[in-house]
Amino acid sequence: MVPPRTAADRLLRPLERDVRERYEEIERLRETFASLLPAYESGRARRADAVPIELLTDLRTVQETIDELTTGARQEVLTAQPGGARSARVLQEAGERDRRMLTRGVRMRTLYQHPARYDQPTIDHVRRVMHLGAQVRTRTDGLCRLLVFDHRVALLGLRDDPEAALLVREPHVVHYIRVFFDCLWRDASLFPVSFDSAAAVRISGEIQESIVAMLSEGLEDKSIARRLGMSVRSCQRHASEIMKAVGAKSRFQAGYVLGRLHAAARDRE
Prior knowledge:
With 269 residues, the chain is an alpha+beta fold. The protein is 62% helix and 16% strand.
């Protein structure tokens, strides 16, 4: 009969040798990739200098670029996300990226549109990132999809192609994008992670004011809903309340009445 310790040595020694050899192979590969890093960084720097604005034409490239820029961020990341509720898949991907970035001490400011306040998965996501130090606000209108990384690189969404983006490295352009973001940020409202009736009434009023302005411009419900990041049904409900308030029987009549009211208000100023 073989003693247990002897049997264990005989069985485990080959496994230990295999593990050791695999670890050594991992270290060799790690050193090989590390030796390639200077050439990669040099090439990327030359490319950045040569291409101040680059069009990324497919979603996979855009996502890979976001992952790379998020991983490399060291100071601050600004994001503006127009539209209302975001999909569970997008929130899950963004949540993990944001968590890694925030735990490194990177500052983060995010802008949504007001309807995002009423989507529970978005509320849960915002609660998690705010717990890690992120700042989140909402506003009615004026957002375009953008991200700014460390005051040096910006990524801008394209209105006519949701799967493409502009990658901007030109310092002056990035600076003006940051100024634009800061203007939007100053007029935005804090994202509440619990229900606040007073804030809800105020936000509803802001949304209706924006709808009034757009109806007076003659915009249709679909266009208004897209600009405000809400469903067409919600927009129609607000528009019906506004029509009732001004005594209009049609969108056209409401737009005409509201346009005259706005013109009269401008004349009085």
